[in-house]
Prior knowledge:
By secondary structure, the chain is mainly alpha-helical. The chain has helices at about 5-20, 30-40, 50-65, 70-90, 100-110, 115-130, 150-170, 175-180, 185-195, 220-245, 245-250, 260-270, 295-310, 315-335, 360-375, and strands at about 150, 205-210, 215, 335, 340, 345, 345-350, 350-355, 355-360. The strands form 4 sheets. It has a 3-stranded antiparallel beta sheet with strand order 1-2-3. Helix 7 (about 150-170) packs parallel to helix 10 (about 220-245). The two termini are about 20 Å apart. Residues about 30-40 and about 245-250 have low confidence and may be disordered.
Amino acid sequence: xEKSFNEMYQEIVxxxxxxxxxxxxxSLIDKMKDTAxxxxxxxxxxKDPLFWPSGMLMLGLLSAAKxxxxxxxxxxxxxxxxxxxxRDYDGKIDFVDDALAxxxxxxxxxxxxxxxxxxxxxxxxxxxxxTPRDNDGSVIYNPGRDSTNIFADGVGQVSMFMAAYGEAxxxxxxxxxxxxxxxxxxxxxxxxxxxxxxxxxxNYHGYSMEEGTKKGLLGWGRAFGWLFMGITEAAVxxxxxxxxxxxxxxxxIAEDIDVVEIYRNICEIALDYQRFDGGWSWQMQxxxxxxxxxxTGMIAYCIARGVNAGIFADSAVTPLKEKLAKARxxxxxHTKEGDVLDALSSCDDFGVHYQTYGTYPWGQGAVLAALAxxxx
Length: 376
């Protein structure tokens, strides 16, 4: 008998829970593979339990936790992972990529009101506020390497976190003292000034303002997804603050740009490159190239979140929901017994994208987040 959407969805939730529980448990075979990759000069998994693969799983689970029936079970896994980070890793924060987990801590606090999540979010806010910037105020991705590179990954994650943190804790000492250093709109504005292709509206993977160059692949799906996620959260917060007339909430994204309008524009661009099967390719323009479930999940999540937040005019909602239904069916078609398949492997650097597809935490989490937002 064919499984229902809900049955398949619940399998995806269970697999995401299991992957989060085991993400720091590396098998001997995987350790040997990492050693071989290191010898070849390729990147290997980090020992940071908050790194973006964990963050993406947490995002998927917390998106699913909107369902109050399964929320207690999901929060038990989020709590255990948080406790492990605090206990075994002394709550250490190592990378800009930890900002996605920081966003999840903000959402966890909203669900539970547990102090440990507020304190964890504060730690990440303090880290991000002190992270080195370029001359324009953008967060540098790997400052320890004497780099001036700004990555879409970093801008997307920190913007997502900054917007959510500012909305939830805009009156905190960290928010007040950091000021514009926790402005999501500032990060977005800078990327749009320096990292966007003027002809297509697509983003490059990154840029260096100091070098005056755009870098990496134009239209890499996951980089588009990262930037889109940051813009989405900032747009949701800005739109909500505008309706509520709450300037203190808007201060976290205050800048002389309309993030909501940017969000709507990037939605149009995303839909221009949606594949016939409802997904998105590893490179946006290559609509007949290999599909990437991580990019598909990230992009579909962003569009669905905007729809659910009421950002679009009523006349646009029905066509958007039809596009999202196609994306939902595509994502379900690329799962097997709860595993999300066909996600592109990790990227080593600008322009280094090994064409290896399989089941990865970032695919699992992104697709779960999208399905949770889209619904049946």
